Amino acid sequence: MAAHPSIPGDPTQPHPDELARARDWAAARFAAPPHPGPMGQTVRPAPPFSFVYDGRPAAALLGGWGPQTTCRRLDEDRDEYTVTWRDPASGLVVACVAVVWQAWPIVEWTLHLRHEGTGPSGLIERLQGLDWLWEGAADADCVLHHHRGDDCTLHSFAPLQTPLGRATAVRLGAARGRPTSEGWPYFNLERKREDAGVVVAVGWPGQWAASFTGHESGDLHLTAGQEHTRFRLQPGEQARTPLIVLQFYRGTPVRAQNIWRRWMLAHNLPQDHGRALGPKMGAASVQYCGFVSTQAGDLEFIEAFRARGLRLDYWWMDAGWYQTDGEGWPKVGTWEVDGNRFPGGLRAIADHCHAAGTELIVWFEVERVHAGSWLAQHHPEWIHGGAAGGLFRMDDPAAVAWVTERVDQLITDHGIDLYRSDFNIDPLDYWRAADAPDRQGLTEMRYIEGYLRYWDELRRRHPGMLIDACASGGRRNDLESMRRAVPLLRSDFEAHPEGNQCHTYGFAAWIPYYNAVHNWDPSPYRFHSCMAPFVQRNWDVRQPGFDAALAQQFIAQWEAAAPGYRGDFYPLTGYGADDTIWMAWQFHRANEDEGLVQAFRRARSPFVTGRFTLQGLALDGHYALTETASGRCWTAPGAMLCDEGLEVTIAACPGAALICYRRVDP
Questions:
Q1: Are residues 73 and 127 in the same domain?
Q2: Would 301 be classed as within a structural domain?
């Protein structure tokens, strides 16, 4: 890792300089009182958001709206600042609620607008949660590190780099309303000349857009928010922007990503029944092995795993357990268990799982409604699309209240431990079709507010219950969702070994907990490609030829590595999909001074040996290394592993290596 003035032995611990910069930046915009300018006017740094009100930019209006600032300590980690502006003429109230983290170089905020006038507000347009002129960035060899979102291909989450300079403009966004569909709302802006940068995240489970524009002045203009807004608020009505997060850093982008990973694990990803998210192994319901899911069939599969001594933390019941009138799993909207296939309900399966220490995952998709379902027939007013089916109206409080009660009852009655939420419909056209010309963007806002309220209420009623944020794979992994859920299916492109390698390489930089799917195959290369904090196995272990001993070896190798996935993530090679290359990475747990290296030799690579310089190790330390497949053990100095590198030989083509290490100073 590049030299950095940080705490010795832990290069990804936030540095005091970074913390000070974040606090100073936030104080200037949220906490410091305005001061007189040279002409007697009130001067304050421009707020980091923008909108246009009745044709006038907010920056020209807010100074005359009497800003007031309040501060409160949320907890030992966070201070909250609320800056409020009131338009005395129209009654529009603008409140920016910002949180400044104490031990992290991170600032976050959301803008809220509320109309307290007697008639409609003025016209609000181009509402941007982030609008910031970053001085000098376009002249500092600035590079935008960004990623593709999920498009169900090998290249989902692929890392990209785009230089930013004067007269350059880059615009990125979501596709068709799902936040990580094709786009990825997390960015790392590196100022290479200054060995520094800033991470930007847009928390919005809808249609976001971001732009990065270099000016001839050398400054870089950053904007981000809901893609399209043009509306008037009615008396008492409110609106909000996406959550915006900035993380200031010094050093390399990889170092910044690991500070981000640590913050995500410590303060964002939900806990599992009061515990930190731990490594898990699940097994899929029988339909993944080509059978129709039934009570008898699921219980037979579960018992087969137990009989062979195969670890089973979760039993995963996917789509189709509900009544579909024989039309198959896509017919959603009748949320009743199919009693013909499950005469004991899902409770019979849950009780069987719980008796063996296994938890039950059950799939739902409440936001898509199929024609002919109970909802379409009895409550077409709750559907964008009516009786013909379409998008469930999370923007309607009555609909949200009903679905909350119904799903809560199913979770309670049937002993469900993890709520798997899918979302196989593009919502954007429905949202926009519902908006009048002077109400554009509000249906999307109301929908997102309802969706977040729904998840929050389920979590309140079932403390510690995890939610899986599936959306045709990985199309709903924005920060607002990740504060409530975990991504147990990164992509529906799920059982391809090179695809899983590429997905881990891109995804792990941002979200430290995720799942990979392994369809049974005796190849170590394929299994190691699917190793992740959560491994989902589509294994028909009942088959006479199933190799239970090999399966036990795979599980033991994963168990040896799994704790390391909570560590810092270091790519050891470049990214690539070509089958002639090697791909490798390292996970390092700084507090324990241990970790793992995974390396993959692709099918047409001519190279038998690779050498990889490790990161984060103590140069004056010694490390015991174990190659899990062969059991070979040896010791090496940290300085050698970081300078000369770790030599890895993979004879098989394709092949994989897993090497675990720990510090063992005498």
A1: yes
A2: yes
List the one residue out of 561, 585, 591 whose CA is nearest residue 572: 585
- Sequence-separated (6 or more) residues with CB below 8 Å from residue 391: 367, 368, 369, 383, 384, 385, 425, 427, 430
DSSP conformational letter for 155: T
Contact 481, 493 (CB under 8 A): no
Nearest CA-CA partner of 528 in 596, 461, 580, 472: 596
pLDDT of residue 292: 85
User: Region 89-112: what's the mean pLDDT?
Assistant: 98
Global pTM exceeds 0.85? yes
Lowest mean pLDDT among 7-21, 260-274, 321-335, 502-516: 7-21
In 365-412 the beta strands, taken as DSSP E runs, fall at 368-370, 383-384, 389-392
Mean predicted confidence (pLDDT) in 246-264: 97
| Amino acid making up residue 292 | V
Q: Which residues are CB-contacts of 247 (< 8 A; sequence separation ≥ 6)?
A: 22, 104, 105, 106, 198, 199, 201, 256, 259, 260, 263
Sheet holding 515-519, edge to edge: 466-469, 418-421, 359-364, 314-317, 280-284, 534-538, 515-519
Q: Are residues 249 and 288 in the same domain?
A: no
Alpha-carbon gap, residue 11 to 1, rounded angstroms:
8
Give the model confidence (pLDDT) of 17-61 as tens digits: 999 999 999 999 998 665 554 555 455 688 999 999 999 999 999
Number of domains in the chain: 3
Asked if residues 513 and 567 have their Cβ atoms less than 8 Å apart, the reply is no
Residue 333 and residue 378 in contact, taking contact as beta carbons nearer than 8 Å: no
Q: How far is CA 44 from the centre of its chain?
A: 34
- Domain hosting residue 590, numbered range: 572-663
Examine the fold and report which residue of 542, 562, 582 is the final residue of a domain before the chain moves on. 562
Identify whether residues 64 and 190 lie together within a single domain.
yes
Which pLDDT band holds residue 665 (cuts at 50, 70, 90)?
confident
Whether residue 6 is predicted with pLDDT greater than 90 in this model: the reply is no
